[in-house]
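Design job #97: recover the sequence.
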C-alpha cells in the first residue's frame, strides 16, 4: 500500500459535527468524543473560526497531569 495524490482529503476524512471553545469543560469535550466517535474536535473562537484542535490524547494527558485519571 502506498499513499499518493489520487485521493483528496475530503474523500478520506472523518467528519465530526461538533466543536468546542477554549472555555468548554474537558468533561464536555470527552462526552462529545464518545457520543460522536471522533478522535479530535476543532477549538473555535467567538467567530466560529478554528484556532486549534483538541485530541483524545490531549484530554487523556490532561487527566493524567491533574491526577484525575484512575
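Job complete. Output follows.
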Amino acid at each position: 500500500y502506498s499513499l499518493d495524490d489520487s485521493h483528496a482529503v475530503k474523500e478520506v476524512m472523518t467528519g465530526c459535527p461538533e466543536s468546542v471553545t477554549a472555555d468548554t469543560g474537558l468533561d464536555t469535550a470527552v462526552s462529545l468524543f464518545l457520543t460522536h466517535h471522533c478522535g479530535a474536535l476543532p477549538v473555535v473562537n467567538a467567530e466560529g473560526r478554528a484556532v486549534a484542535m483538541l485530541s483524545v490524547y490531549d484530554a487523556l494527558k490532561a487527566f493524567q497531569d491533574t491526577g484525575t485519571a484512575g
